[in-house]
Specification:
The complex is a heterodimer. Helices cover 65% and strands 0% of the residues of chain A. By secondary structure, chain A is an all-alpha fold. The model of chain A has no long low-confidence stretch (mean pLDDT 85). Chain B has helices spanning 3-24, 28-48, 52-76, 81-85, 88-109, 132-143, 145-166, 178-181, 186-190. The longest helix of chain B has 25 residues, at 52-76. Chain B is elongated. Classes of the chains: A mainly alpha, B mainly alpha.
């Protein structure tokens, strides 16, 4: 500990970034394997099982393959923007992790407007997709980018309103304080008083990350692969990394904002100091893994939404629900509805 | 030179260069992307003067939503540069006049007399517990509530006008109503099972 505080600030920040990003990228790699395995089992297949013990080395084989592939740049594509797009896609997906707390006080940057920062950065991710679609000089890519832009802008509103509900309930924009406001037991977490907002947030999160059943931006059966149709090799892999990092981010945020983050589901009096049952990082991990599984579960279960129905769901169903529930939460906070807001 | 000053000059330079690129780029998509860059770097400048809430909201609203839609429209445009340049010489005098008038106006309002370190003393540093968001919310909903509400109503009027201008009924299109579609019930609306008597053996000629 003394050694840690004796280091210069910049070194501590850099070490913190490495300590977050390395496990994150490892998790992304194995999330792709988990996706293929889990969807395989749901569809009564085995999934990849040739590389390494039960297919455990498959992500490494994929990464090596992608690294040695040629990056093809289409004729008359806008070369600079074409190569810039994947970087613009991944930068906000990684930068958002700066304000994510992993345990009480364990956070790289404890800023007051943490939730706002996350919302701003996730709204930047769409630029990677739009620029990729435009710079590819391909009609399928442009169609995919168009769909994606409209979808992300629409669902961002519902997502933002759901988060407004959370911050009214918690009375803070700081992610650590939001988790702290939920302390008690599984029944005092925000999923219960904010149940409609939780549903809207989860579904909007799936739509924001362009995952099935909202993956019209890359609908294979209609527009080949959408915005990344012209990408190959590492340029494609970076888009892939950004998408999975965003999924893990949404899963983590759902756990932090609605499911009490690192808090134990049991009342504090029962588990105080008990090994593994007390509050801790492992509870956050369990919750995050569950929501990561939900992403895959949804993909294996539902067929792709039609585009006009996606727009209807976003604008005519989700936004009215969130606005109505913000009013309910506001009244509950003002009138100190027990057990959540009783002083 | 402190680190903060260094950051300020870096991002100020980026803002100025990007703003220059916005008006000089031939390709409109590039121009819009430079505008996005100018917004992001000015958000950083706002962060440096401890206006964290405004800085992040600038990125969230302008970069994350407004510019995305703007980019979207510009990408769909078919810009014909030759047509745009036609009549450049003919309109040059009047254009120059308007530009000069605007430059003079700007100079009168925000001329060098309004700037300088003596005009703006360094504000006292905010206490550690000071929250930008709370201060802004308090000012907006108590002191400035009335102008705030008026601004909201003006925006509402703009929304209603925009919708009224663009909404037109097109009875000739085969538009599907998705909300009617999702309300289809399995029983009466979708599938009707009909019990048919078997036809019996058919005589082959």
């Amino acid at each position: 500990m003394e050694l840690w505080t004796s280091l210069p600030v910049i070194v501590r920040i850099l070490l913190g970034i490495v300590a977050i990003l390395l496990p994150l990228l490892g998790l992304v790699a194995y999330y792709t394997l988990a996706e293929r395995k889990i969807i395989g089992y749901i569809q009564v297949r085995i999934g990849p099982n040739r590389v390494g013990f039960r297919g455990l080395l498959q992500p490494i084989a994929d990464a090596v393959k992608l690294m040695f592939k040629e990056i093809v740049i289409p004729t008359r594509a806008d070369k600079g923007l074409f190569l810039l797009a994947p970087m613009i896609a991944i930068a906000p997906a990684l930068a958002a992790w700066a304000v994510i707390p992993f345990d009480a006080g364990l956070v790289l940057s404890d800023i007051n407007a943490g939730l706002l920062y996350i919302l701003a950065l996730t709204s930047l991710g769409v630029y990677g997709i739009i620029i990729a679609g435009w710079a590819s000089n391909s009609k399928y890519a442009l169609l995919g980018a168009m769909r994606s832009a409209a979808q992300i802008v629409s669902y961002e509103i519902a997502m933002g309103f759901a988060l407004v509900g959370v911050l009214v309930a918690a009375g803070s924009l700081n992610l650590g304080a939001i988790v702290g406001a939920q302390s008690g037991s599984a029944l005092t977490w925000f999923w219960l008083p904010l149940l409609p907002l939780f549903g809207v947030y989860l579904v909007s999160g799936v739509a924001e990350t362009n995952r099935a059943p909202f993956d019209v931006a890359e609908g294979e059966s209609e527009i080949v692969a959408g915005f990344h149709v012209e990408y190959s090799g590492m340029a494609f892999a970076v888009f892939f990394l950004a998408e999975y990092a965003n999924m893990i981010l949404i899963a983590t945020l759902t756990a932090l904002l609605f499911f009490g983050g690192w808090l134990s589901p049991f009342p504090q009096a029962w588990v105080d100091g008990v090994f593994l049952l007390d509050d801790g990082f492992h509870w956050l991990l369990v919750k995050v893994f569950f929501f990561m599984f939900v992403f895959l579960w949804l993909r294996a279960t539902f067929p792709r939404y039609r585009y006009d129905q996606i727009m209807r769901l976003g604008w005519k169903v989700f936004i009215p629900i969130t606005i109505a529930w913000i009013l309910v939460v506001g009244l509950a906070v003002v009138y100190k509805l027990p057990p959540w807001w009783a002083v | 030179m402190g680190f903060e000053k260094f950051l300020f000059y870096c991002f100020a330079a980026i803002t100025v260069v990007a703003a220059g690129m916005v008006v000089t780029r031939r390709n409109p998509v590039h121009a819009v992307l430079y505008l996005v860059l100018a917004f992001v770097s000015s958000a950083v400048l706002w962060l440096l003067i401890e206006a964290e809430f405004l800085g992040i909201v600038l990125v969230l609203v302008y970069v994350g939503a407004v510019m995305v839609l703007f980019l979207f429209v510009v990408m769909m445009l078919d810009v014909d540069l030759a047509a745009l340049r036609a009549g450049f010489v003919r309109f040059l005098p009047i254009g120059g006049l308007v530009a000069a008038a605007m430059a003079v106006q700007i100079f009168l309002v925000v001329g060098p007399a309004n700037f300088g370190l003596e005009a703006f003393p360094k504000p006292p540093a905010a206490p550690a517990e000071y929250s930008n968001t709370e201060a802004l919310g308090l000012a907006l909903y108590t002191e400035h509530l009335y102008p705030f509400e008026i601004a909201a109503v003006i925006l509402l009027v703009a929304i209603v006008a925009a919708i009224r201008l663009t909404l037109r009924r097109r009875p000739d299109t085969k538009y599907i109503d998705p909300s009617a579609q999702v309300q289809v019930k399995k029983g009466p609306d979708r599938v009707r099972l009909v019990k048919m008597p078997a036809e019996g053996k058919v005589e082959t000629p």
